[in-house]
Amino acid sequence: MSRDEEVKLTGKIGQVGLGKKESLVSGKSNHCASIVVACKEIIITGGLVKTARLAEEWYQDVEEPELIIESVKKSNIKVDIFTFWQRLPETEIKYNYYMEYESIAVLPIKSFDYWWKDQINAKTRNVVRKAERMGVVVKQAAFDQKFISGMKDIFDETPIRQNRPFWHYGKDTETIKREFSRYLFREDLFGAYYNGELIGFIFLAYAEKYALLSQIISKIGHREKAPNNALIAKAVETCSNKKIPYLVYALWSAESLGDFKRHNGFKRFDLPRYYVPLTLKGQTILNLRLHHGIVGIIPERLKHHIINFRSKWYLITSLKNTSRK
């Protein structure tokens, strides 16, 4: 048994274990240093500025930040900044550390009928009905080889999604199986099928206080059948049946994805995120507001132009690569 495993099992306050954590960064497998403190794994990322955070921050709370801060300081790994947030539904500021709000997309769940009648409009209801009329069937699925092959077909449909290179494009089935099977112990899997073909799916993860859409995607070629809307409806129905009060769709979004979230009843919830400097470098970075990198200090108007230029560049590059094939 490794030191990390011992600490995870005992969970004694103040115990620390060092190790490596495999995580996905922009869809690519990445190994980073990790520290286990009282059953919570802390990962350290970054180049010149090392930042520590909970590996499972969507699923775990930081009840004693001072304990983690002191343990990270005493570890053999140099860390400049420790960041953590308050999970939903804790929206009131609890600590005196430097804080910024982080916005997530949340659908409060009362019942499926309430969502259907009061949280979405007639246009969205018609889209969900349209999916059913066109023959889209949404049902719970098993993570077997057939389903994994269906996932690969969806992933390989296009190298560009949401105006940027798609993380999972071109991955083989073994990689997909490894990356998507690691958290099945806390997830339900639902597929959207048309004539027996998998055209979309969601991984619905449970985080005690809410459910999280950890993955939702469908084939662009079947967009007119609205599989994503049908999948959202199934997620709402599942949360309602399980008495889960919130459905979370990752971070709050702008542009088309944000419109999709709003049309399906999701609202913006602002959660406190704290940044604690652990070194002089970390304090300097925070003072200069560079903890988000150069992107964090670019004016919003200029950022919008950069994103538009980047999207056009990705599209042109994709078209060139396609024509060469």
Total of helices:
10
- The residue fraction in helices comes out at 25-40%
Largest sheet: 12 strands, mixed
Rg, Cα atoms, Å: 21 Å
E-strand count: 14
Mean pLDDT: 86
Order of strands, widest sheet: 1-2-3-4-5-14-6-13-12-11-10-7
Question: What is the total number of structural domains?
Answer: 2
Estimate the strand proportion: 25-35%
Based on Cα principal axes, name the global outline. globular
Report the uncertain regions: 1-16
**What is the H/E order?**
HEEEEHEEHHEHEEHEEEHEHEHH
Structural class: alpha+beta
Distance between the termini: 50 Å
Outline the secondary-structure elements.
Blueprint: H1 3-10, E1 16-25, E2 28-37, E3 40-45, E4 51-54, H2 65-74, E5 81-85, E6 98-108, H3 112-119, H4 122-133, E7 136-140, H5 145-155, E8 160-161, E9 164-165, H6 173-181, E10 187-194, E11 197-206, E12 211-218, H7 227-241, E13 246-251, H8 255-263, E14 267-277, H9 280-287, H10 300-324
Parallel strand pairs: 4-5, 12-13
Antiparallel strand pairs: 1-2, 2-3, 3-4, 5-14, 6-13, 6-14, 7-10, 8-9, 10-11, 11-12
Helix pairs in contact: 4-7
General description of the model:
With 325 residues, the protein is of the alpha+beta class. The protein has 2 domains: 3-89 and 274-324, no CATH class; 110-244, Aminopeptidase, CATH 3.40.630.30. The chain has helices at residues 3-10, 65-74, 112-119, 122-133, 145-155, 173-181, 227-241, 255-263, 280-287, 300-324; strands spanning 16-25, 28-37, 40-45, 51-54, 81-85, 98-108, 136-140, 160-161, 164-165, 187-194, 197-206, 211-218, 246-251, 267-277. Strands 1-2-3-4-5-14-6-13-12-11-10-7 form a 12-stranded mixed sheet, sandwiched between helices. Helix 4 packs across helix 7 (227-241). The longest helix has 25 residues, at 300-324. Mean pLDDT is 86; it is low at 1-16.
